[in-house]
Design goal:
Layout (H helix, E strand, L loop, with lengths): L5 E4 L3 H5 L11 E5 L5 E7 L9 E8 L5 E7 L8 E6 L4 E6 L3
Antiparallel strand pairs: 1-2, 2-3, 3-4, 5-6, 6-7
Length: 101
């Protein structure tokens, strides 16, 4: 995983305002650009336990051929689920993902 730009987010509006079992906010998910490795990663917490800061790594996209550019996220269509747009910088392509089931 090459260093790139990280951004924190929550997969749903409900999760973003909800509280963990200890009454504190949920830990955020992290979007991470792999930059020249051609991948966009999502890191998500193992748990909301305050003494467990281990995150799982998921490859959101593996272009296998292009530099990943900047990403943007938000609930673009107002359905309560986070959407993610990733730029395939060197080929001029956009990739769109949603957390809607």
């Amino acid at each position: 995983m090459s260093p790139g730009s990280p951004k924190t987010f929550y997969p749903t509006a409900e999760f973003a305002v909800g509280l963990a079992e200890d009454g504190l906010p949920h830990k955020p998910y992290i979007l991470l650009s792999g930059d020249d490795d051609g991948r966009m990663y999502v890191l998500f917490p193992n748990s909301d336990a305050r003494d467990d800061w281990v995150y799982q790594k998921h490859i959101l996209i593996d272009t296998e051929k292009t530099t990943i550019g900047k990403m943007a996220h938000g609930d673009f269509d107002g359905d309560g689920f986070e959407d993610v747009v990733v730029a395939g910088y060197s080929i001029g392509q956009l990739y769109l993902f949603t957390y809607k089931p």
